[in-house]
Fold this sequence. Notes:
65 residues, alpha+beta
Amino acid sequence: MSADIEWQKSSFSGGGEQCVEVAWQGEEILVRESDAPRTVTRTSRAKFAAFIQGVKAGEFDHFVR
């Protein structure tokens, strides 16, 4: 994994090690957990955009209740 990848955490994470981080590399979106940074999931920008739209629409709210 390239050292020049800029990972981004949500401002809602509280700055701790219990959050999800995202970055992009070329045409891929990378996702990892801050407490397990060596495990990275890769997806396309289109798939990630569809997921974000679902989050905004409340489709995944039942996972955090």
